[in-house]
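User: Quick sanity check before I run a bigger batch. Here is a single chain. Can you write out its predicted 3D structure?
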Amino acid sequence: MNLGSAFIESTGQVEPVAQIESRVLTDRFRLRAQLPLSEAAGKRAEVEYQLDDHLSVQGEWNNDYSDYNIGDFGVDLRARWEFGE
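Assistant: Done. Predicted structure follows.
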């Protein structure tokens, strides 16, 4: 667990947050969470599964805007290549 700060979109301010990251079951599966210490909004949860060395699937949930009771969900397919030695 890490204590730090993050920009919270719904308030437009930098707020103190607790950040948690862990690998679960295998090195390819990662969970991350951001929990604001002073606001109800600004919570984030993220899961990522590494399919191979260059490809991963990532899902995210956040409650940055209080207009929606269930928050916002998203899924991304990420590709990454590094060049050089």
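The mean pLDDT is 87.

User: Great, the batch can go ahead then.
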